Amino acid sequence: MVKTTVSIIKADIGSLAGHSIVPKPLMELAERKLAEGVETGIINSYYVFNAGDDLELLMTHFKGVDNEEVHGLAWETFKAAAEKAKALKLYGAGQDLLKDAFSGNVRGLGPGVAEMEFEERPSDPIVVFAADKTEPSAFNYLLYKVFADPFNTAGLVIDPRMVDGFEFDVLDAIENRVVTLKTPEEAYMLLALIGTTERYIVWKVRRASDGEIAAVSSTTKLSLIAGKYVGKDDPVCLVRAQSGFPALGEILAPLLHTYLVSGWMRGSHWGPLMPVGLKDSRCTIFDGPPRIVALGIQVADGKLVSDDDGRPLINDLLADPAFDLARREALELASALRRMGEFEPARLGPQAMEYTTLPLVLKKLEERFKEV
Ligand code: F6R
Ligand code: MG
Ligand code: MG
To answer: What contacts 186, CB < 8 A, 6 or more positions away?
Structure first.
């Protein structure tokens, strides 16, 4: 049976009034480009949305992960959108396009990618997460809760297809190597790694009983590609739901409360992750707080399930009032952290700050230091 691939590829290619939203003309241009991609048979269906200042291209196709044509389509779309952003003199035009030449796929060029290929089930629900003003390891906590914490996911205890647990591929972003850990047996060791969010990123999760892909997140670290601060690696993540995977509600349950992630203002601060609906996917206070959106989609016959006019059916999950508590908590935490100004732990520790613009400031002081 032919396998379906779901790809989400994103980049910040320009924003309206600073680093806040992707303006409409860029979204419309991206839609036109992806519509051409459907016409020419590269992809089967698509949905364009924004997470703050990041342009998100959700696509389905039969071409597998890391496919040259699909990545090429995304790259050309970002390039065209960046040109438009430059023409309009939008802010940060082309920000995340770090290299000029496309060579097979977008990995290492700046855009973030999460893709999974699978044999469709009779009905295949998926949750698409996208966050702004944070980094790929922002999903470490969420993915641990969903796939390894029985106090979050009842299915780990009740569903016979899940009691064998899950395997986590964890990327060491500094050494560029990966290790696989199996839960529940190795849950403590997994936490020992992924609690260090500055370095370790949960990349893929598979169901242990049959190796079936369950989740994948983007792993791009722009600072590690460019060697300096060039913007944020605002991440995306795909999670398969139901019948042998966590239920939709188990996937969303960690967002009943906020939690702290790094990457707020200038990529230099801790901030509370605030769940929002698409209409509130707009960064404001201190360029944030870091925001997360989640789309509930269904995939069938290689396409996003759509209405009669061919428009994909999207469930804007975090628009629900059920996330008001987390939003309120996020604002309260944001207010406590902002009272601290530039003092740690509101600001990131010195190691993480090496990848920001702070060292340029400290350099100016260097010659004024005297031996004691
Ligand atoms: C961008 C981001 C923002 C910027 C900040 C300063 O993704 O996180 O917080 O870092 O607005 O931006 P510049 O240096 O462009 O003025
Ligand atoms: Mg930006
Ligand atoms: Mg962004």
So the answer is: none
pLDDT at 167 over 80: yes
Ligand 1 pocket test, pick from 10, 266, 291, 338 with the greatest ligand atom count within 8 Å of Cβ, gives 266
| Nearest Cα residue to atom 13 of ligand 1 | 266
Residues in the ligand 1 pocket, defined by CB under 6 Å = 18-19, 133, 231-232, 265-267, 287
Pairing of strands 112-118, 4-11: antiparallel
Per the structure block, which two tokens stand in for 138?
A: 């922002």
pLDDT digits 0-9 by tens, 64-95: 999 999 999 999 999 999 999 999 999 999 99
Residue 231 scores a pLDDT above 70: no
AA letter at 117: E
Q: For residue 304, report the phi and psi dihedrals to the nearest 5 degrees.
A: -70, 130
Asked whether the beta carbons of 310 and 258 are under 8 A apart, the reply is no
pLDDT of residue 174: 87
* Count of other CB atoms within 10 angstroms of residue 226: 14
The answer to whether the beta carbons of residues 66 and 106 sit under 8 Å apart is no
C-alpha 166/C-alpha 181 separation (Å) is: 9
Q: Locate the domains of the chain by residue range.
A: 4-363
